[in-house]
Amino acid sequence: MKTSKSLLQVLQANIIQPNEKKHNRCVFLTFSPKLATAPSLRFLADTFLRTFGITTAAQAITKVFTNSDNALMRTCYFSYTGLQKLGLDTRTFEEYRGFCLGMAKSLNESRSKWDTNYQIRLDAMLLLASNNKAVIEADYERLVKHLQARDLLTQVSYEDGECLYNTAGQHIEHFGFRDGISQPRIWKDDGTLDAAYLKKSFLVEESGGAYGSFFVLQKYRQDVALFEQKIAALATTLEVDTEFAAAQVVGRFRNGMPLHLSDKAEAIHTPELQQKIKDFDENKLGFDADDKLGIKCPFHAHIRKMNPRDKSLLSGMFYPKAPRKFTIEILRRSIPYTTSEQDKGMLFMSYQCDIRRQFETLLRWRDTTTFPDGALGIGMDPLISNTSELKPSDQQRWLKKWGQANYQTFSFSDVVELRGGGYFYCPSLVFFQNMEKY
């Protein structure tokens, strides 16, 4: 318990427990080349240790923080280029190739196709979150003015996110599905933190025994009208109702009911299914227990592609030469955004100990037409794979009737588009304390 307590006191918020604040602002900073001086480093460290302060994991789980509408969460992240501009020793990061390359280069994405504020190299990101948007606005203005007073920034931009809720008050995304339900179990059944698992798979050890984590941000634009049009076309092709068709895309009904456990959304209220649903949502139960053949929930369904719940796949066995063993799971911390009726979607966020071996592995699974069981005709993830030129053999294989191996091919894609993002490192408070010593 002592180890866990000391860990939480220097670990940034939002890693071990999802930020539940309604309003979020991602602030993107590009540093001045003259930042790498001892006075500037001490000024920056003091900014986030004292003047403004970073919210720790220990602070974020207190009742005072969680229950206050005016409480503000403030976290800070650096890209590889940002660490270089700070003049810090980056040799310890060299084994993490994806992070060092940056998102655009590592994923072979063209920045020129992204939204303007993502087309330049981002050196740092701040995440501000509160239930009171005015609190974020005021903090943003003061913080940026504080940094600009020392001429440390060449560019500042931001992206706002805001939680969406269904009629039951549960978090949803723009397509109307419950979001953030199933996460890696870093909290034990007795309510204590599984520090060993957290350190093994999601944290990076720093000098002095403190821990940070690698952070991914991606902006995904969702075409809601196109999604509903394609759902209607899919339902017509399969001769099924639209909600069953939509559930095959995601792997759940909109209310969160897992498709492999029932073909009816209202089954989520069935007493005899409650324990199975709970175990599945807590990743204690996999798909194979009730649907090994993929005749209830298609293999291509988004949640089955991204989290197959197969220990042999999630164990990191694909990387025998990795410096340590870890799972391929990630901690997801996303929030919807709405700029206009035409520009809405998801600010996807995740924490992991190795971006290339965890997050980017999931992207390969997403686009592999034979994953997860190796059979032909499974198809790509219909929700987030981004291609409109599929060969007939690559099209997804859909169920015409739940529980029966009666399939129909159909190409479902292009309803979500990547509009930008970045790879960052989320350091411990000890990291900032060491900056003061430069």
Give a structural overview.
The protein is of the alpha+beta class. It has a domain at 2-162 and 207-212 and 428-435. It has 17 helices and 14 strands. The protein has helices spanning 2-10, 38-51, 57-60, 63-67, 80-85, 97-101, 103-106, 133-148, 195-201, 224-238, 242-250, 274-281, 288-291, 302-306, 311-314, 359-367, 429-435, and strands spanning 23-31, 73-78, 124-130, 153-162, 164-165, 171-172, 204-205, 211-222, 331-332, 335-338, 344-352, 396-399, 407-410, 416-426. The strands form four sheets. Strands 7, 8, 9, 10, 11 and 14 form a six-stranded antiparallel beta sheet that branches. A four-stranded antiparallel beta sheet has the order 2-3-1-4. A hairpin with a 5-residue loop joins strand 7 and strand 8. Helix 2 (38-51) packs antiparallel against helix 17 (429-435) and helix 10 crosses helix 11. It starts with a helix and ends with a helix.
Protein topology:
Blueprint: H1 2-10, E1 23-31, H2 38-51, H3 57-60, H4 63-67, E2 73-78, H5 80-85, H6 97-101, H7 103-106, E3 124-130, H8 133-148, E4 153-162, E5 164-165, E6 171-172, H9 195-201, E7 204-205, E8 211-222, H10 224-238, H11 242-250, H12 274-281, H13 288-291, H14 302-306, H15 311-314, E9 331-332, E10 335-338, E11 344-352, H16 359-367, E12 396-399, E13 407-410, E14 416-426, H17 429-435
Antiparallel strand pairs: 1-3, 1-4, 2-3, 5-6, 7-8, 8-11, 8-14, 9-11, 10-11, 12-13
